[in-house]
Amino acid sequence: MGDHSVKDIILEIIATIAPDADLSDVKSDVRLRDQLDMDSMDFLDIVMELRKRYKIEVPKEDYPSLATLDGCVSYLAPKFDAVATT
Amino acid sequence: MSGLAAGIRLAYYERRVCIVEKHYAFGGLNSYYTLDGRQFDVGLHAVTNYVPSNNRSAPLPKLLRQLRLTREDFGLCEQSFSEIRFPGRRLRFSNDFSLLEQEIAQQFPRDVDNFQRLVAHIRPFDDVRLDATYQSARKILGEYLTDPRLIEMLLCPLMYYGSAEERDMDFTQFVTMFKSIFLEGFARPREGVRRIITTLVKKFRAHGGKLMMSCGVERIETSGGHVTGVVLESGDALEADVVLSSAGYHETMSLCDDAPEAKRTDDVGRISFVETIGVLDQPPSTLGHAAAIVFFNDSDVFEYAVPHELVDLRSGVVCCPSNFERHDDMREGPFRVTWLAGYDQWSQLDDSAYAAAKADYREVFLRFGDQYIPGFANHIIATDMFTPKTIRRYTGHLNGAVYGSPYKRRDGRTRLSNLFLCGTDQGYLGIIGAMLSGITMANNHILMGD
């Protein structure tokens, strides 16, 4: 799965969980928490939405891998591929 | 409320959730009813934690995000202003914190800088952590402020709106209340608490949650340190992987069928209230009373404690729901007065003595209102009253305790591995706190746990 689509998926999820967040200029390499005023509850929602929408499981110890958009891409792209091929 | 909030989270993430409610109406402590064609609210005076829409990190926006609701869903209207009235002094405050700062500067000039230092301590204080330890709020306030009257005046509204403890407060809870009332503020849905409750119920149902009304829990069944399900008063049984209870700690644990814990009574809550609601033939503001909420005390010392008589008239809260914005087309105006009350005294009365006591305090109420509105009694067209006994009946809380146990179990855990608390005995305060409590417990113990 391409880098862009993972980013788009994450941004789409953030738009759902924080509809008032400004997503026009999100940097890929800066922690989402720092750019978007998100807290641990919002983070949990990213994980939960991934599970609800794409059946992707992220164990608690891996949450830090999702800190930035770049982190999301490298951590999630193989998972999306795995889900797509099963 | 905490149960509904937890239920929304869980149902949204596709858990099978069933909420069982003992009463025929929702809301527990914050509910509503209709009497002679008029709608009455109980519990909720105002929603605390009101912040403008550009603030995204405060509890209210956090809660709305977690429940996928918008600000419009609750239809919140801001207060005019509120005040703390002690003999010879009044501190007004509003949803703009600078009003309270100015009032303190004028009336307690020697404590202006001290108050600012206190606020600087409060703002960054982490009051939502689940492992906070007890510190006396009075002790910490005494380290910052010199005038004991200022300490009493600050404690009065914060205790009345959330303290399960007599005479003092846990500092963490003080911070929660200080932020939610002074740094944030009061608002209220035009339709009262029913707007919030119906919004939550609709959302829960829309996500597939199941609601069972008038369904008391007879017992919680356990096996080997786990809960296996609940048996309802009807005799029906429900199996469950996890149970969240908003019934209160002692109330919940006494339903469990395993070996009971050694009986403790020192941490059963005792703070209870009477509230008289009078309906005026016109809004209080047209009769000269513009404050949304008044916290009053008749001496320099404020004693927040369980009275030895039916009612302690020395301090209390006056709430006028029509003194919130966008309420100005109301033709009638409710005027609610809350006083501390003794559960034991009320519950000992037989039916006729109970009715007589209510009638007596109705007279007290009619005279009391004169301090706020001249000729008060002549404007009253309807009244109703609830007592600690009413609270016990509708919420099941021991002692009619409005704020539950003074000893909070902030992580929500119990001796049973899959039984958790939410709501007042978990320890987040106020109506926003109740909902955040349900959300946090659902997140931490159920969504993150699997």
Would you mind describing this structure in some detail?
The complex is a heterodimer of chains A (86) and B (450). By secondary structure, chain A is an all-alpha fold. Chain A has a single domain, classed as Orthogonal Bundle (Non-ribosomal Peptide Synthetase Peptidyl Carrier Protein, Chain A). Chain A contains four helices and no strands. The longest helix of chain A has 17 residues. Chain A starts with a helix and ends with a helix. In chain B, the strands form six sheets. In chain B, strands 6-5-14-15-16-13-17 form a seven-stranded mixed sheet, sandwiched between helices. In chain B, strands 9-10-11 form a three-stranded antiparallel sheet, with no helix packed on it. Chain B has a two-stranded parallel ribbon with strand order 1-8. The two termini of chain B are 24 Å apart. Chain B contains 15 helices and 18 strands. In chain B, 34% of the residues lie in helices and 21% in strands. Chain B has 450 residues and is α+β, with helices and mostly antiparallel strands. The longest helix of chain B has 18 residues. In chain B, strand 10 and strand 11 form a beta hairpin. Chain B has three domains: 197 residues, FAD/NAD(P)-binding domain, CATH 3.50.50; 105 residues, no CATH class; 126 residues, no CATH class. The mean pLDDT of chain B is 93. At the A-B interface, helix 3 of A face helix 2 and helix 15 of B.
Question: Secondary-structure map with pairings?
Answer:
The complex is a heterodimer of chains A (86) and B (450).
Chain A: H1 3-17, H2 32-36, H3 40-54, H4 69-85
Helix pairs in contact in A: 1-3, 1-4
Chain B: H1 2-12, E1 18-20, E2 31-35, E3 38-42, H2 59-67, H3 71-74, E4 76-78, E5 82-86, E6 89-93, H4 97-107, H5 112-122, H6 137-144, H7 148-160, H8 171-184, E7 187-189, H9 193-206, E8 210-212, E9 217-223, E10 226-232, E11 237-239, E12 243-245, H10 249-253, E13 272-280, E14 293-297, E15 311-319, E16 333-341, H11 343-348, H12 351-368, H13 376-379, E17 380-386, H14 388-395, E18 419-421, H15 430-447
Parallel strand pairs in B: 1-8, 5-14, 12-18
Antiparallel strand pairs in B: 2-3, 4-7, 5-6, 9-10, 10-11, 13-16, 13-17, 14-15, 15-16
